[in-house]
Amino acid sequence: MVQAFDADCLVEKASAFEERLVSESREREAAGRIGADITREMGRAGLIAPELPLRLGGADLTKVTTGLVTEAIARGDLTVAYIQVVGSLVGQVIARNANSDVASHYCGLITSGEATVAIGLSEPSAGSDAGNPSSTARRDGDDWIINGTKSMSLALTSTATVIFARTDPAAGRGRGISAFLVDLNAHGVTKHHISDMGQDAVARGIVEFSNVRVPADHLLGEQDQAFTQVMQGFDFSRALIGLQCIGTASRAVDDTWAYVKNRQAFDQPLSKFQGVSFPLAEAETKITAARLLCLETLRLGDEGLPHTSQAAMCKWWAPLETYHAVHQCLLLHGQNGYKKELDIEKRLRDLLGMQIGDGTAQIMKLIIARSSAGREFAP
């Protein structure tokens, strides 16, 4: 049943999850997955892909609202915010490129929280070089046959995935690539867990596809055109990732202000020392600036204006500055910050991964340079 959500009310609902998410974050990390219960609860509250149209289970709200929801969830736990970020990214890809029946089915699963759908772009041997996948797809009657290996977040817990595979072996880099919606429970799919330094709850894994049959109507967009058509949705997710990092870091800064105001040294609160308060002031300044950049990028997206360069800025700068901010927070907690009893060290580990996944800083800067100078004059 379609529900109507008010934007402010939805952000408040997301904020209401914060303390619960904080208290349960270690349990999720130990389990190595985000529980289906919290995903369904988020879906019932309308917190997954609210920008999708009502007919697909969304709330037809703005991208800015989706960004604020993402930020609010990430204040509680960066990894749980992945459910929303990936939900919006994959939901947009499916909504724009799948036929109506396929879009209705999978977007309904995503927005309700009944299932997650992963994104399979990276490969163990090809991360930043996404335009040169080794995974292949060939037509066989009414099906496509998929072969290859992908590494992806939510691999071990998702029902399906959007993957990118080469459909024209003779085409050059960035060409002859198609996108498919693949059932992760299909015959020929094998999953392997990846043990990471942080973000264990996102259940990252290696997924092998061995002669996996995919119905022809699960091709997303035009054949051979995925790298230009389908990947347009990444401008949206890059701004969301920035706000995901900002939510986590802003909670760490708030916790650290509370700590240094209460912690006594040399007969006064730690916050009275410039060497303590000034790094936090600098962190707040940079976090606020990054937040405004992300929200402006989403506003441009809502208005249908170009924002590829701004999205790339969000993706490289917000993860970096939020990592630096939480690093300072850990140091200002002293020995207590190094303990696993507090959430500071987990937030630091989680944020470090955001500088790697979904596009490195080098690739983002290349996008910005080419946008500003043109391909002829950029690297």
From TrEMBL:
Top EC class for this record: oxidoreductase
Coiled coil: none
Protein name: Acryloyl-CoA reductase (NADH)
SUPFAM superfamilies cross-referenced by the UniProt entry: Acyl-CoA dehydrogenase C-terminal domain-like, Acyl-CoA dehydrogenase NM domain-like
Keyword Flavoprotein among UniProt keywords: yes
Keyword Translocase among UniProt keywords: no
Residue ranges occupied by any Acyl-CoA dehydrogenase/oxidase C-terminal domain in the UniProt entry: 227-371
Species: Brevibacterium ravenspurgense
GO molecular function annotations of the record: acryloyl-CoA reductase (NADH) activity; acyl-CoA dehydrogenase activity; flavin adenine dinucleotide binding
